[in-house]
Design a protein that fits this description.
With 385 residues, the protein is of the alpha/beta class. The protein has 2 domains: 109 residues, no CATH class; 184 residues, Rossmann fold (3-Layer(aba) Sandwich), CATH 3.40.50. The protein has 18 helices and 5 strands. A 5-stranded parallel beta sheet has the order 2-3-4-1-5, sandwiched between helices. Helix 11 links the parallel strand 3 and strand 4. Helix 7 crosses helix 8 and helix 11 packs parallel to helix 13. It is elongated and about 75 Å long. The chain starts with a helix and ends with a helix. The relative contact order is 0.15.
């Protein structure tokens, strides 16, 4: 038997969970029911005011930030809150930041992740649904430059491509600017100018019954940006995006930090916190409490393992385990949970999943049908020690 069959796994090759590799893993969220309920409630009420979610999720490395973002995506897609007026259009971005990166880099990464084809299709829908396209564009933004760029983008071709480059904050020559009817490069007057362009795209999404929401991960990389104009441009971009005036572009940001003060200062400045709201700063704590660890492991095993197949194997082969703890013996299960609780800092979902997977691999290599105490004692101290 291969590993999957050996442990009665359901449609998967291991106990590893990674929604970026296996999209179906986005449905999983274990051992944190109160936190899960809080996040979903906050996300739902945000569609009333400010009409899109604006949230900051932070915690230590391995605490599950990326899985949380993908789980919230899954919920918005498959269990769209009644408060959401339109179809969620969700875009994932793993931000890359260098020491001299400015908000223009962030804007480019957001718009490129969204994609030119998506915005063109929204413009075509608006055109087809409007009696007066010029009037419809004017409702999206008061900026004549953005209106002109939208018009050329809908038409496609070379002018459409130049318009997209302009909307994404890339620098155009004077001749290229003239060809699409704009007077300057977007962002030339500051980060707020870039946000105006993104907000206009969000308004366009809303006009065709979509709600634009970015899931932005790896924002701890903002630590790479030192003080000065570069850092201030990131701050101004986030500040403008967090304003109540922005009701069309949502964002859920994930950032690492052992404590809140360890987050990048740009994400934690008072004027940003006051706009996003303290209730929308969500901490992912480690699973240090024994009850939390036990619930996490039980839920994970219950979801990933075919319970009926496991029950038949346990009974037919007389295995020293139960469906609740399979593929661990009862004592090995308790032992693993004990190890996971010894160091609060290391009691993270990533480490617990790694320990489960490594123990199962050890059992498979030894051709043992269950994981016993000896295997846990060999592996868990390395991961949690």
């Amino acid at each position: 038997m291969d590993f999957k069959e050996w442990f009665c796994l359901k449609n998967r090759e291991s106990f590893t969970i990674d929604a970026k590799i296996n999209p179906s893993d986005a449905q999983f969220y274990f051992g944190r029911q109160p936190l899960e309920e809080r996040m979903l409630k906050q996300m739902a009420r945000a569609f009333i005011d400010p009409r899109v979610p604006k949230m900051m999720i932070w915690g230590p490395f391995g605490s599950g930030k990326t899985q949380t973002l993908y789980y919230l995506d899954y919920c918005l897609t498959n269990k769209t809150p009644a408060q959401c007026k339109g179809k969620p259009h969700l875009v994932h971005v793993e931000v890359e930041v260098q020491s001299k990166s400015t908000a223009a880099s962030w804007h480019l990464q957001l718009t490129e992740a969204l994609g030119m084809n998506t915005v063109q299709e929204w413009l075509r829908q608006l055109y087809n649904n409007s009696k007066d396209f010029a009037e419809a564009l004017a409702k999206l933004t008061p900026d004549p430059n953005i209106i002109s760029a939208f018009g050329y983008l809908r038409g496609g071709g070379d002018y459409g491509f130049s318009s997209w480059r302009w909307l994404s904050g890339q620098k155009l020559t004077a001749k290229e600017l003239e060809s699409i009817g704009v007077t300057r490069n977007l962002g030339e007057v500051g980060a707020g100018d870039l946000v105006n362009g993104l907000q206009a795209i969000g308004n366009l999404a809303g006009a065709v019954n979509c709600r634009l929401i970015f899931f932005i991960d790896e924002m701890e990389e903002l630590q790479n940006v030192r003080e000065g104009d570069a850092a201030e441009s990131w701050h101004q971009y986030l500040r403008k995006l967090s304003d109540n005036a922005n009701s069309s572009v949502g964002f859920i940001i994930g950032s690492a930090g052992d404590t809140r003060d360890d987050m990048p200062r740009i994400l934690n400045r008072q004027d940003v916190r006051s706009r996003i709201g303290e209730q929308n700063y969500i901490e992912l704590e480690t699973l240090a409490a024994p009850a939390n660890v036990k619930a996490f492991v039980e839920e994970l095993l219950g979801k990933l393992i075919d319970q009926d197949a496991a029950d038949k194997r346990i009974k037919s082969e007389g295995l020293k385990t139960t469906v609740k703890t399979y593929p661990f013996t009862a004592s090995a299960f308790d032992l693993l949970c004990d190890y996971a609780c010894q160091d609060a800092v290391k009691s993270t979902p990533r480490n617990i999943i790694k320990a489960i997977n490594e123990c199962a691999i050890a059992a498979h290599d030894a051709q043992e049908k269950v994981v016993d105490d000896a295997m846990v004692n060999d592996i868990a101290p390395i991961i949690f020690g």
